[in-house]
Amino acid sequence: MTAVDHVMLTGNYRYLRVSMTERPRSILVAPCPYDDESPASWIQRVCQMHGITYQRLAESLGIVARHDPDITLPPEHICHIGAGTSVSGVRLRALSNTFHAVRALPRARNLLNFDPLGAPTYRICRYCLANDPVPYLRIAWRFKDWKFCPFHHERLMDRCDKCNAYIKSTRPSLGKSPSGKHLNVSDCAACGQPHIKPAGVHGPPHVMFDGQELAAQDALVATVLNGYFRIEGFNRRLDLGFFLWLRENYEWHGGRIASCGTCENPRLVSSIVRRLQSLYEHASGAMPIIGIVQ
Ligand SMILES: [Zn+2]
Ligand SMILES: [Zn+2]
Q1: Same domain (yes/no): 81, 128
Q2: pLDDT of 151-179, one tens digit each?
Q3: Whole-angstrom distance, CA of residue 203 vs CA of residue 200
Q4: Residue 268 CA, ligand 1 centroid: distance in Å
Q5: In angstroms, what is the span from residue 283 Cα to ligand 1's centroid?
Q6: Are 109 and 224 contained in the same domain?
Q7: Is residue 294 part of a domain?
C-alpha cells in the first residue's frame, strides 16, 4: 500500500464515521410544505414520495413514529424528517411549531379532530383537493369547529364516502389506483378510492350556512394558531387558556358566547362584560356582544 492509498483510506473512514454518528440520517428529498399545510399532511406527502408508511419512514431515520405528529413532542420531530433535504431549517421549524399553542396547553386538544378510538383525524373539502395541483391537508381541517369550506361552501367530510373509514392523519395513501395513478392525499388510505369527484360530475352543493359561523371558525383557528384571542371592544390579547375556559362555561353560538349558568369566576367575566358594555355604549350605543374577532 502506498502512502497516498493510506491517506485516502483514512479519509474515507473518517467521513463514514462522521456520517454515521454525527450527521442525522436523511431521506434526501422531501416536498416543500404549503403555507397552510399541516405537519401531518407534509409527513403523508413525504411518505407518498418514498412509497413507505409513516412507521417505516421513522424507522429508517432512527426516530419514533408519533401518535399525533401535529402536536407531538418533541417539536424537532418534523426537523428530523426534513433534515438534509432542500426544505430549509427555518421552514421545517415553522411547520413543527404550527400547533405550538396546543403543545403548551394540552387541553386545547379538545378543539381538534380525533376518531372514537383517539386516532388524530381530518375533515376534508373534496373541491379544494380536486383543485390542488398536489393535494394536501389544510391546518384548519384538523379543527372540530371548521365545518364548512369558505371557498366552496361545502360541508367538510370526516370519512370516506365509499368505505366509511376516518381520514387519519398518520395513514398515507400508498400504491397506485387501478388506472395506474399514484395515490395521494385526495385518495382514501383505507380503500384507495378517490375522495374527489371526477371533474364535471357536479358542482359544490352550496350548503346554506351562516356567515357568522364562517367568521367563528376562522376566529377559532386563529386563536389556537396564535395562542391568543381578542374580544370585541376589549383592546387586549387574551390567552388560549381563558378562551377554553369561556367555551367550557358559556355556550358558543357562531362566535358569540352566551351565558349558560354558573362559572368558576363570575367576577372576572362580569368585570370584562361591564367594561365591554361601557365601551360599546360609548362607541356606538349598540347592545353589548361578546364576540371573537381575531
Ligand atoms: Zn373547498
Ligand atoms: Zn375508503
Answers
A1: yes
A2: 888 889 999 999 999 999 999 999 998 88
A3: 7
A4: 39
A5: 37
A6: no
A7: no
